[in-house]
Amino acid sequence: MTPATRVGPEQTLALLIDLVREDLVRNPGLVDVPRVAQALRRQGRVLGAAATLELTSRIRDHIDGLGPLQPLVSAGVTDLLVNDDGSVWVDDAEGLHAADLHLGPQQARDLAVRLATSGGRRLDDAVPWVDAHLPSGIRLHAVLPPLSPGGAIVSLRLPGGEALDLEALEALGAFGPQGRKVLLAIIASRLPFLVTGGTGTGKSTLLAAMLGEVPHGERIVVVEDVLELAVDHPHVVHLQSRHANSEGAGAVDLIALVRQSLRMRPDRIVLGECRGAEIQELLQALNTGHEGGCGTVHANTAHDVPARLEALGALGGLGRSALAAQVASALEVVIHLGRRKGRRVLEEIALLHRADDGMLQATTAWHVDGAELRDGPAAPALAARLGRTSQEHPPARPATPPSPTAPDRSSPPELDARTSDVHEGAQGASVQASHRSGRRAA
User: Fold this and answer.
1) Is the Cβ–Cβ distance between 193 and 220 less than 8 Å?
2) Alpha-carbon torsion 374, 377, 380, 383, what sign?
3) Residue 149 burial (CB < 10 Å; 0-12/13-18/19+)?
4) pTM for this entry
5) Could you tell me which of 321, 323, 296 has the C-alpha nearest to residue 309?
6) Distance between CA 329 and CA 325 in Å, rounded?
7) 10-26 vs 33-42: helix axis angle to the nearest 10?
8) How many Å separate Cα 71 from the centre of its chain?
């Protein structure tokens, strides 16, 4: 085989990719072997069947996929990061580590712009940042110079291979049997809650798993800035914000979407991520009869959540005392997650309430010690709340009866024996009855 018939260096590949893109503009369709073979003939090159097939796969990655990052996508990878110096980092089961790959400034910029375009968003010198959801389910965030001192910064959050329910998360070591039973009880009791934690701790994954346990007779309305929650439930409606166009018009923010969700007959309103003034609209919604609402918030610890909510409330014009009054009647539980040795785990469950001075406070109900839950000061109060609300609001019966051949997944989420002793076992029994009637059909 002569040098003219070999797949050349990256520059030769780039020229071939440009030819394929030009052909796609003239004749839209798939990037397939005939199209690539035609581009090769235009270059005066001939390849064997196996080499052409491999080249087609590489070109498809650059046109439809993640380009040079595509080979890094594998099971267990959650994040791909490109820094402004061109270094590439991978976050997987082993934690965050550098990859044996380097992107040039123009290569990183072209990748960021192409991915933003595929997600329906604009990325250029006039709008040098983007937050988008790609058709493949990948979440993209990118920043261009001069906001980044070097080259483009690209952050990709990859979706999981399959939706994880609470049983799967328990099997992965995110929490133990006691933790899972308490999470099920929170859903069955229709208590409003927040899932908190730092970046990459699995907040959205746990929230989606918990929403998957909502009875099928309930309607869930999910409001997000970028589509991220994949909820395994038959009655879920998604609303996504819209950025302004090139003329600066047409923007629809989360505040407007939360207001619209109130008119959609929701049983549960979910705010994918609370990070701005929309927290005021969510609190008002949860204070007007919409029980069981939930969302996620970035926070370092459960005890930092009140300060975080106060900061968000200030963006919406709420003072500390007004926010405390709203939250005290709208949100009750904080489920805090963290990372230990690369594993995303449940760390604490806390109760939100007003302190003696009237300000908002989060008090530990249970903290995780290995696979066990240890009682905190608020354990009796939260156990009582779980039991009482389970009796007041029994979940609707699933739309279809469980299959007689399916495995029994209706084990009662009885609370820990220590809290059951305090309340004479009433809480565990009531949550058991509620949960048995509200579990999903097998």
Assistant:
1) no
2) negative
3) exposed
4) 0.73
5) 323
6) 7
7) 110
8) 23
